[in-house]
Amino acid sequence: MQNRITQLFNIQYPIIQAGMVWCSGWRLASEVSNAGGLGLIGAGSMSAEVLREHIQKCKQATDKPFGVNLPLLYTHIEDHISILVEENIKIVFTSAGNPGTYTARLKAAGITVVHVVSSTKFALKAQQAGVDAIVAEGFEAGGHNGREETTTLCLVPCIVDAVTIPVIASGGIASGRAMLATFALGAEGVQVGSAFAVSEESSAHTFFKQRVIGASEGETILSLKQLTPVRLLKNAFYDQVKQAELNCASVEDLKKVLAKGRSKKGIFEGNLDEGELEIGQVSAQLNSIQPAAIILKTIWEEFEQTRKTI
């Protein structure tokens, strides 16, 4: 398939692996890119020098295009941008911040910029800022999420109708059937997170992966909306958050509950009680740990097969 997304990134399949904290290192990104999709290194959990190391290792592991996901809310953003320019990165997905702040600077360095949004309002702002494409991320997605709680199937057509640049659907997509549904609504690519978070190449802890593939429907919930909304698997940490919110905790009190390093503790270190277990609603559909290339191939083949039968 050739469309604006495959042409924009020079990839075979319009399937992008999300740049997830503590999951998306060079092994996962290079594997997805080698399989014909677009792999992303997740810079959110990395210092500048660790990011440089992952970029250099990814270059050694693949000659295919890959990119970096750059959350804009972190304090070391300037160091990260310097690394991206120095390492001649050509594709950057920005998220969790104002695209108007850095897009022009990134594009001046010859970088293709994509921004993640959860509403039409911010999609229009991103387009105005000059991004090359938009990720429309629905309420189903794992990790940090939009306050609007608009689902993917409602969000994608609204954004497609509002902008002229290509749209990538995200949130609740782990199958070819789901991918085809978003294409019917006007998307030209999909960003897949949870399915790749539990892949063999994901840097997440085995305990986290096993917990995710054992999850059933209804075990994730959007929490911490007073701070930065995040979708979590229910566990002892989530119970603390829920109780604090029921007690009308202040923002400062919630920050104390969250503390530092909760996502690292849960996702990377495998502490299933005290850690923050970020994952999407689609976790209920995941039931095995597979190589990333097999995950991508399975999604694409089901997409093609389903398209022929409709």
For this entry, give a set of tags.
single chain; three-stranded antiparallel sheet; TIM Barrel; 14 helices; 15% strand; 310 residues; eight-stranded parallel sheet; 11 strands; alpha/beta; 2 domains
Question: Explain this structure to me?
Answer:
This protein is an alpha/beta fold and about 300 residues long. The protein folds into 2 domains: about 230 residues, TIM Barrel, CATH 3.20.20; about 70 residues, no CATH class. It is built from 14 helices and 11 strands. The strands form 2 sheets. An 8-stranded parallel β-sheet has the order 1-9-8-6-5-4-3-2. Strands 7-11-10 form a 3-stranded antiparallel β-sheet, covered by helices on one side. Helix 5 links the parallel strand 4 and strand 5. Helix 3 packs parallel to helix 4, helix 5 packs parallel to helix 6 and helix 11 packs antiparallel against helix 12. The longest helix has 18 residues. The protein starts with a helix and ends with a helix. The model has no long low-confidence stretch (mean pLDDT about 95).
